[in-house]
Amino acid sequence: MHPTAQTLRDVPTSEPPDFICALSYEERFLRRRKLVTDCGTEFVVDLPKTTDLKQGDQLMLSDGRVVEIRAREEQLTAIRGDSLVSLAWHIGNRHTPCQIEKDRLLICHDHVIEDMIRRLGGQIEHVSEPFTPEGGAYGMGRTHSHDHGHSHHHHSHD
Questions:
Q1: Successive 10-residue mean pLDDT values, the chain, 158 residues
Q2: Scanning 8, 90, 130, 148, which has its CA 20 to 30 A from the CA of 112?
Q3: For residue 92, what is the domain's CATH number?
């Protein structure tokens, strides 16, 4: 039987965790799932509600050990341009998760968004890095899924 993580530690300690579990952005949004640590130890996450795990969050296992969550490298699109604020607005207007940095924006690969960014004068570079985008509205974590990458529906963003 695998140990179970039902508790997210409120305050990480300075003690090193027993395990590291690197997850992609999508994998870090969960309630119940079987996971494997970087050293191969399996455990089950069974949280009371769906949770957006962040880089550095720590899960308490039923046997007392601690698993620290890390953002694993994934294929992303780095965006640079003279008007990052404007580019960030257009990305946000499409409800696309975005990591905002001083000199660039990072998003998951999306050819539709990449084409739009190029048309707006932005430069695109494909990179492999951990992805830790901004939280949703009002700092409450993720908002609803609203992917414009493949199927398209049209509605007003007024």
A1: 81 83 96 96 94 92 94 98 96 94 97 98 98 72 46 47
A2: 130
A3: 3.30.70.790
